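Annex B. Sample input.
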Amino acid sequence: MVVLFLTRQEAVCELISCRLKEEGHIAHICTTQKSFFTTLASCKKSVQALAVDYSFFDHHTFNLFDCLKKNKFLQPVIFYNHPYPAEDDRVDFWIQQNKNKSPDFLSLCKLMNQIVSSPELNPCISLISKPRDVNKAVLIPHENFNCRQFQILHSIGPVKMRLFQMLFDHLSHAVSAEQLCHHVWGSYTRKRLHTLYAYIHDLRQCCRSELNYEMDIVRVGQKKYQLVFTLPHNLTVRDEQARQAFERNRHLFEDARCV
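Annex B, continued. Sample output.
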């Protein structure tokens, strides 16, 4: 089947799509609603299923159901990171929502559930990974942070990740550009310094796009950098807003299909 993704987690969905392709499916990934609907309109007949990031429902200005109905797109929709069905119930949940029991769609649902439930990907997928019960009053901001998951989520290469790991290992104080260059490349030259600046810029973007942590790389003084964490905030509020927006708009789509 041909599957079209709409997601905020491009790197994760690229890994999902690779797994789908290994099983004979075709996947295309879009990260904005504009590119999603442009792609869908251009290959309406060939796209057979839509895989959508549930977190798009916290944007009241973007009504997925209304857009699909208005353009007469009737492909089944899988909210691959829907936070409410348990792993064992997820396939039946997708089947019931779409009222689609075709063998091909059932096979796709089973495969998708297997992929998003896999130990290596599940912790990286927003909304469906189970939160730990912690006391926020005493939680160290980076206590639950996993560098390997961060690397997978943002598709960070090994050299750039070595730089990030150095900053992570020195959370309590700033690290000079010279120290970072020597750690990553074993030398400190003008060329290495310019590469360092480019890498720090890229890593900042990764940090700022994190859904589960408030984190950034800040400059402290001249040519010194520090990775900083603060406590996650508003995650529960965001997920609840997504759920409410989903329930509020679902009736607009039920004429064509129960989603």
